[in-house]
Design a protein that fits this description.
Layout: H1 4-28, H2 34-56, H3 68-84, H4 87-105
């Protein structure tokens, strides 16, 4: 049976999602401020750099596989991204290679 509370939750979540998507257009109108354009250019690289540091912070080069799977996966991601310029492809192949290396090879 359909729960009315679940329906209200979905309705409210949908309204809030649409409101948040319309909010920038209401706030800025037709002209996007320069600071927003600047953030749109620099934040993706900043986020990727922070994620890279976070993922590699616990690699111990003195124990286990000595960080070899991580280095191989990182180099693969960099080379693939330079070659194809496809972020999704780079992330999927790098993650798959890393998982293969730690599960099968090392």
């Amino acid at each position: 049976m359909f729960d009315i509370h679940a329906g209200y939750i979905v309705l409210i979540a949908g309204f809030i999602t649409n409101f948040l998507r319309v909010l920038p257009f209401l706030a800025f109108g037709k002209k996007t401020p320069e600071i927003i354009l600047y953030l749109g250019r620099v934040l993706p690289c900043s986020v990727m750099a922070m994620l890279t540091v976070y993922c590699l912070k616990d690699v111990n080069i003195f124990a286990g596989s000595h960080g070899v799977p991580e280095v191989i996966a990182c180099i693969t991601v960099i080379l693939l991204h330079v070659w194809r310029r496809n972020t999704l492809l780079s992330i999927i192949v790098g993650t798959g290679l890393y998982m293969f290396l730690i599960q099968v090879v090392f």
